[in-house]
Amino acid sequence: MRIINPDMPEPYKYESDYRNIPREYLNPRIPEGRKMVKWQAFKTMPEQYERLEQYIQDQNKIDKPILSDDQLSELNDTLVFKMFHDPVITVSYYEDGYIKNIEGYIHKVDNYERLLYLYEETILRKVNLKDIVEIK
Asked: Do residues 45 and 84 both lie within one domain?
């Protein structure tokens, strides 16, 4: 084998990749270069990065589930039972392409506004009844 680095210890004499050699054996006077300056030209359009990030997030979105009449009736029965017997509830609901979960205490159900009011710790949350997918 050909010796590439004659001044280095034995295991590094034949190493051609400087990244595999510890820093203490490298020449400290080598200039560092421009570092990240050479990549700044690619960051001239921040809208491009925002749009790419939005495309990545949109790939995970789902369509709103369509519930049958039987499923809606079961959700209604479960909600009525929870209101009078066990106010602790876990609700899965659809929002902006995602199924989200919330756990809390039932405050009230507003049939006129079609909203379910829940206390999640100390915060009063509103969930639209038509967006509810599951109640536990």
From this structure: no
Mean pLDDT over 33-44 rounds to 64
Which residue's entry shows tokens 């049939």? 111
Nearest to 91 by CA among 121, 68, 82: 82
Instruction: Classify residue 115: in a domain, yes or no.
Output: yes
Beta bridge partner(s), residue 115: 110, 128
Residues 122 and 90 in one domain: yes
Least confident window among 36-40, 48-52, 116-120: 36-40
Domain assignment of residue 63, yes or no: no
pLDDT digits (tens, 9 = 90+) for 53-101: 899 889 989 999 999 999 999 999 999 999 999 889 999 999 999 999 9
Q: Which domain holds residue 120?
A: 69-135
Q: Are the C-beta atoms of 81 and 98 separated by less than 8 Å?
A: no
CA pair distance 46, 17, nearest whole angstrom: 35
User: Could you give the count of Cα atoms lying within 13 Å of 124 in the half-sphere of its Cβ?
Assistant: 6
Q: Has this prediction a pTM greater than 0.90?
A: no
**End-to-end CA separation in angstroms for the chain:** 71
Question: Tokens for 55?
Answer: 């495309």
